[in-house]
## 1
Amino acid sequence: MKQKMMARLLRTSFALVFLGLFGVLGAATISCRNEEGKAVDWFTFYKLPKRQNKESGETGLEYLYLDSTTRSWRKSEQLMNTTKSVLGRTLQQLYEAYASKSNNTAYLIYNDGVPKSVNCSRKYGHTKGLLLWNRVQGFWLIHSIPQFPPVPEEGYDYPPTGRRNGQSGICITFKYNQYEAIDSQLLVCNPNVYSCSIPATFHQELIHMPQLCNRASSSEIPGRLLTTLQSAQGQKFLHFAKSDSFLDDIFAAWMAQRLKTHLLTETWQRKRQELPSNCSLPYHVYNIKAIKLSRHSYFSSYQDHAKWCTSQKGTKNRWTCIGDLNRSPHQAFRSGGFICTQNWHIYQAFQGLVLYYKSCNQTW
Ligand SMILES: *[C@@H]1O[C@H](CO)[C@@H](O)[C@H](O)[C@H]1NC(C)=O
Ligand SMILES: *[C@@H]1O[C@H](CO)[C@@H](O)[C@H](O)[C@H]1NC(C)=O
Ligand SMILES: *[C@@H]1O[C@H](CO)[C@@H](O)[C@H](O)[C@H]1NC(C)=O
Ligand SMILES: *[C@@H]1O[C@H](CO)[C@@H](O)[C@H](O)[C@H]1NC(C)=O
């Protein structure tokens, strides 16, 4: 009798533990995904430009890829326009959430260049990205691709506007307890949100994202904000966010000095609209001019719409940042941000791409 009761009790508690675990794990699966569709803590990608002078069969859809489980860049197996690409796999979770109309999942998609619109909004930040999360965890994708992604009802696609030039991005998986900090960073970035759903269950902790989603004018926006963030697996990041009232070059005036490192920056710099390499302040900023893919393969920064920087070789404090803004005088007037890490593999990967950068006082 006693044994029977014991057995029943055990069975019930097993069932409860199992259901409990399933409930948590089932809800916890929102994360960055690799090309196999497996959850990864973070990944970064570098979509390669389509070089005009080459008859190499480049489509402008190939990319380099690095994640928390690999150690160096890999050439993608898939083209960026397929649902099996790393962005396709990761965004699949957005389409599932959208279709289920689940009221415990939230998303926010923003881009200064809205899909299928000819207008680029200057009213909002020069910032592009996507967040998808529930009360357990989610991911933040920060990227440079104009007019990407399409609204969720249209499913996955990669726009022609992202094809010719190089593009960069990073996806990081965060536990829900990081979202309050992200909420404040996003406010400062002043994103142009073109698709979103933030159910009421989040409105207590997250103040700004529901307002951004409703395009309600917000409370006072700080000039700049810096926060530490930690990925679900414990990788540390620093996020710099500047508003349009911080009227300066984010790299020279803030990031290099704060990170205490000389930075090599790769951004979209059109001719006669570039801020030169800058050695005025204690920590310098140098413009990268050419990217090397291998000993025989390289491309010019004029073909690159990516936005990233990395510590100069040989200096201490080895940082790498990926984000929103270019080294152009006009970008002082725009909001946007960068996410930075001291992860060794990310540093090695980006450092390895630098072929040539301009020193200060160099006129050619
Ligand atoms: C992706 O782009 C390639 C090269 O342009 C094209 O052949 C292919 O049909 C595209 N695939 C999809 C799913 O759009
Ligand atoms: C949202 O969740 C609440 C509480 O679980 C439930 O009562 C409600 O029906 C849900 N709404 C929708 C639209 O699914
Ligand atoms: C683009 O901007 C112009 C001028 O501001 C406006 O008239 C037009 O409606 C906008 N088009 C779209 C698609 O938003
Ligand atoms: C270097 O950058 C700082 C901060 O933006 C700026 O004040 C300074 O004028 C710049 N120096 C040169 C030579 O452009």
## 2
Amino acid sequence: MATFGIPNGPWADRYHAAQSTMTTHFQHLYRFRPRARPTRAIFLTITAFFLVVVLLWRPSSQPTENYWLKYPSYRSSQDRPEALPIVHKGKPTFTRNDTLPGNLQKNNPSFHLIIPAKRKSSALCRMLTSAMILNYPPPTLINYGKKLSEGAKEYDHMKDRIASIYNFLDKTQHVHDNDLALILDGTDFFFQLPPDVLIQRFQNILKENNAKLAKKYGLVIVEKPSEQGAPETVQKYTQRVLFSASKECCPGLSRDAGCVAVPESSLPPDIYGWKTDSPSYRTLARPRWIKPGAVIGQVADLKAIYAEILRFIEQNRIPRGDSIALTYLFGRQEYVRELERRRASNPFMEWMYTMIGISEASNLTGLSPRLEAGRRYEHGIGVDYESRLFFNTWKSTRDVEWLRYRNITKTSFAQMLHNVPRERRLLLPDDLAPERVSNPFTQPIFGKNDPPLNPPINETLDALPHPGFYSWRKFPLLTNVHSASVPALICLDGNPSLRSTWWSMMWYHRWARALLRKYVRSPTGFEAAQSALLGGQEWWDLRGGRGGIWTEKGEWFDYSEVCVGYEKEVFHDGLGKWRQENGESDEPVYNQFGQLVKGKEGFSPS
Ligand SMILES: *[C@@H]1O[C@H](CO)[C@@H](O)[C@H](O)[C@H]1NC(C)=O
Ligand SMILES: *[C@@H]1O[C@H](CO)[C@@H](O)[C@H](O)[C@H]1NC(C)=O
Ligand SMILES: *[C@@H]1O[C@H](CO)[C@@H](O)[C@H](O)[C@H]1NC(C)=O
Ligand SMILES: *[C@@H]1O[C@H](CO)[C@@H](O)[C@H](O)[C@H]1NC(C)=O
């Protein structure tokens, strides 16, 4: 494999770019049937002229450097995050009375939720509560309880955070390269939709975008050394990880490739009306730039990206170096892709597309990023322009409405109120249809022989609406009216004033305590074990564990250890402390660093 990186390697000259575009264009031309002879004559002359030009121009474009090889970009076509069998479809094949075979291994990739959080806070507890209610895997908190030495600067905290995330991905035994990970940088997030919706959307976006990238950049046939089998046709560039999108580029980099050469947003150019993208109306810009904060992808890809970020911030000791590094990374990736696209494209076609105004070229004017031959700039980075996964509130708080999709009067006017051109009726996304996603109010069924429920059912505390009467169509869902999407995750990027109001508007807020109790109570024992081994939906992470969080060191903290004391901010229901609602409790009480303060030791992770 190492030879792939060598620009002048033994098989470099055997590389062929697929040039199917040409033929298709001529097929299109031939379909026009001129009516009169003079027209046909003119048409044929022009075609002949174009042909000559094309034939004369092509050879001159051949000897230039192959950027796909110069900056190693190879990815095997077998290794695609969008094809990961991560969402478990179908029913488990065991019945309750079967015994589990001792050698059963969990063979599908896991899904990890990674959150750097040093200490408890109401923001962290809201985030954890929303993740648990929606059945996300138990999160892993990075650096929880860690204190840096006195006098640590902003830079030190940032570097420590990035290094710890990288080390977790790199060194943890149960985190495998082909697992999926969602890394959220901080605690200002609310989950809105369940994890299977998030993961399937991620995979769908990759499929859509990769089809577009295959068309734009073409394919390449990689001939392998004979012992490795037949030649492989791979797409030159693919998308593999998704970051959230921002309306603003990282400040201070306006002359960098990361701000200039990155693709345009996939939203229509007038989606915010005629002032869209005008420099004097920042809130009316289409999200286009990369925004650190939320990212989803395979562990191996994220590890490579975090390694680059870490390398950059170690060389440049500047605050906010992580944002800058990420902007650089994305910019250089797109810069190299554009160089390669220009090299492989036909200059005549380029010229014609520019004339018609459908050129795909990105603007490289005045850019000259420093690139080193033999280094990988291709990281498969993409951005979620339409906020189907991540909605970032930065300069965007006015783009949203809280819609109940059953109320058609409201949904049909929403786009008009926001001046969206070419309105279309906002409909509940397909992946939230009742047959695709379970009703969050359905209570699990418990048998007589099950162990006693913990916590026991209490009519007051566990009151939930009947699932038949309440469903996704009736919940108020935060909707990005412009892109017509219901994001799975909301990033309240440095907007603390919204935290409480938006939290109280989340669909689960009214029933947060009952839903959390339902989550914590979910079956343990046989079903849990089976489900964990099979990679069932509720047990994404092999370690299992319920109603708590892990740290990167493998310690387990119960939800109450982290979040007791924040009930007012989280539940706002006046029912008192979590798990101590009736006044007494035998729950152990821990201090901030996990030491037992009162009560007896409960579940321990080892
Ligand atoms: C499990 O075993 C019990 C008692 O042996 C039996 O009544 C029940 O039908 C069995 N359930 C299934 C699903 O096989
Ligand atoms: C490309 O960028 C340069 C410098 O930023 C600018 O002057 C030029 O107008 C841009 N060209 C196009 C076609 O956008
Ligand atoms: C639907 O929305 C409209 C406009 O906000 C509101 O006046 C009406 O009461 C809503 N209807 C229902 C059934 O919630
Ligand atoms: C249920 O919870 C409420 C509120 O904490 C409490 O007043 C009531 O006594 C509980 N009921 C039972 C049967 O435990």
## 3
Amino acid sequence: MGHLLDRTLFCLTTFLATITTFQYVQPVAAQQYLLGLGIGDITGPVVETNIMTDTGLHMRQRTRAFLIAEADNPSNRVLFLNLDTAMGDSGIHRGILAALQKQFPGVYSESNVAVVGTHQHSGVGGYLENLLPQLTILGFVNQTYQAIVTGSVNAVTKAHADLAAGTISVGNAIGSLLSIIGKTVLNANINRSPSAYLANPAAETAHYQFDQDKDMTLLRFNDVSGNARGFLSFFTVHGTSLYNNNTLISGDNKGMAAYLAEVAAEPNSMPGATSFVAGFSQSNVGDTSPNTVGAFCESPGQPWDGQACDFNSSTCGGTNEDCHGRGPGFRVSDFESNLIIGQTQAQGAQGILNGQLTPVVGSVRSVHQFINMPSYVFTLANGSTVLTCPPAMGFSFAAGTTDGPGAFDFIQSDNSSTPQYDLNTYFKSKF
Ligand SMILES: *[C@@H]1O[C@H](CO)[C@@H](O)[C@H](O)[C@H]1NC(C)=O
Ligand SMILES: *[C@@H]1O[C@H](CO)[C@@H](O)[C@H](O)[C@H]1NC(C)=O
Ligand SMILES: *[C@@H]1O[C@H](CO)[C@@H](O)[C@H](O)[C@H]1NC(C)=O
Ligand SMILES: *[C@@H]1O[C@H](CO)[C@@H](O)[C@H](O)[C@H]1NC(C)=O
Ligand SMILES: *[C@@H]1O[C@H](CO)[C@@H](O)[C@H](O)[C@H]1NC(C)=O
């Protein structure tokens, strides 16, 4: 029971480094921190693990570690791990922490380590401990789990050994600004459910220029001379450039972006063996899609073949199976689209990295809290005390998305149900 409860705990780790923006007042002297960066290979068995993705390798999966400590008091430190996995699973988090506590007693704990997945959809499966992904992957694969934990710990070991004085600066650019200087991230995502977005109140949508977040935010890690040792960027786009019929293991577009940025910085190093570390972390991913051309019907022989899918329901001739999102390289292949979306993010990061950045100053602190989401008690604005319900999954979840359509007669925007629909919901969505 304790274990079951544990699975429903929502784990929240927030890192606070005070970012003071003074550039219009006076230049701020950059503050010194101790910084460490490292890369570890986390690719598990690339064949014969899961049902969808198991015939070989397109690109290895890696963990990139970013370590920030106070120069005066290095025990005040935060460790951010960006994993080329679908999710920063709590079982993986526990495994990494257990190994780190053995190797570096008292240094790393759940309160100062964040484990984040890039949310690719083509990685080696079998490491997640929750029911739904275990059903789709047909169980737990210890070899995959061990590869992710061990490789992540290797990344931390390098970052830890690599700890050296340096400074951090931060930059943020929205797509439209970047496109002026030719470094656009504007074209790296779209909203895959624009009709759902339109259901927001007009007063809400009036706040935004786009129906999707186009911001990229980047932390630049400098050595004492100001040379970049690497960066950690945040941008929102699903790792679904490769379609759900892909059978090769890959880090998808964020894995590609990291590879391109690292190889550009150190062209003579082997991939994954660079000292320059490029982090492309996922942010508010929601309904973002890398399939930026839009969703079209692939219905050979039907009158609607090649036409845009129905706007509200993402269907073709009334069903959703034929409605597929297209990436910018769709005429060539989904691998071409993956390359383009990876390049677009890598160029966006490069643009921010080499642009005007604000020095980061302040102390290094982290906050961590477990929240039991199914019975979280809180107070409404009108003073009533209320509590959240057990988790539930809307059955239109089974419609999948235009990045990976579901099956049978589930469609997006549908809102009626039958008991067997409720059961089937578990089995019929790939995304
Ligand atoms: C998983 O693999 C590790 C390392 O080989 C081993 O120590 C552990 O006992 C295995 N766990 C299970 C459940 O098989
Ligand atoms: C994979 O799916 C895409 C999108 O539907 C399709 O264009 C492509 O032909 C499929 N590839 C294979 C190998 O079936
Ligand atoms: C989509 O649904 C909205 C709200 O029900 C409706 O106003 C609109 O006409 C629909 N659009 C299309 C293209 O069917
Ligand atoms: C406060 O708001 C909730 C939700 O609208 C409502 O159910 C509740 O009755 C309200 N409580 C009071 C004291 O008005
Ligand atoms: C379900 O959708 C129909 C058709 O769009 C709408 O008329 C109805 O109000 C919706 N029901 C609920 C419970 O949202």
## 4
Amino acid sequence: MNEPYGPEAPRPISSTSSSTMKMFMGLLTLFIVAQTIGTVLFCLYLHMKMDKMEEVLSLNEDYIFLRKVQKCQTAEGQKSTLLDCEKILKGFQNLQCKDGATKEQPKFEMQRGHEHHERSHLTHKNETSVAAEKRQPIAVHLAVKEREKAGSVLEWKETMYAPKSSLISNQEGKLKVKEAGLYYIYSQVSFCTKEVSLAPFTLYIYLHIPKEEDRLLLKGQKTQSTLKSFCELQSIRVGGVFNLREDDMVFVNVTDSTKVKYSHGNTYFGMFKL
Ligand SMILES: *[C@@H]1O[C@H](CO)[C@@H](O)[C@H](O)[C@H]1NC(C)=O
Ligand SMILES: *[C@@H]1O[C@H](CO)[C@@H](O)[C@H](O)[C@H]1NC(C)=O
């Protein structure tokens, strides 16, 4: 009946088939895309897994190497294994050397520290020796020195067995202290009197401070009373403790230095730090 339209009849069919085709194609594309993404993800996963595996494998290798070293380090193990122990031990030593190079620094530091410690110990020792030197008594004992020119200030010289100190210097009869502190200062002057004089023979110990007036520290006196023509020997002794500052000087002067006895042991001057 509608023969001429016959070929038109399958058109809806073909249109439906093309739409299913289109759907199929869409699904296929979707599938392919999903497959691709899946593959990429799987590859990524695999790659990561491989990395981990590699790590584990290298650890395993390390473990095996250490086991080999352990085996090779014992004489029995060396005999029993077929391993090339020499090579393995050499490799291990090389590793240790490399490791040692990095560890060398702290060791070196330690050594240096030790050296430093030693050095500080040395300086400490030196300090102690200095301290010991300082602990050595600061003391001098001097004998009177015969002088050519007249003067009231007596001069002094070192005597045998008597202490001397670098911290007390003798400058023309004046003893200068380099260290402040308490000092015991003493002196004895022996003299002989022939003629009667009303003025007593006097021994003084003065403190001399530069740019200041001399201050009397000690004084000893004897009145000459005898009328004898020969020398009557007398001695005056004084001594006391004084607080001296650095560079202070002390000296002895007498009223008449011509009467002073210069024989050994008669006239002396000394001081020491307490
Ligand atoms: C103390 O130090 C001096 C140098 O200042 C040195 O010559 C001496 O050997 C040292 N003494 C000691 C005991 O270390
Ligand atoms: C002893 O020295 C003091 C201080 O320099 C002085 O004042 C005094 O006159 C001197 N004594 C004699 C006897 O020269």
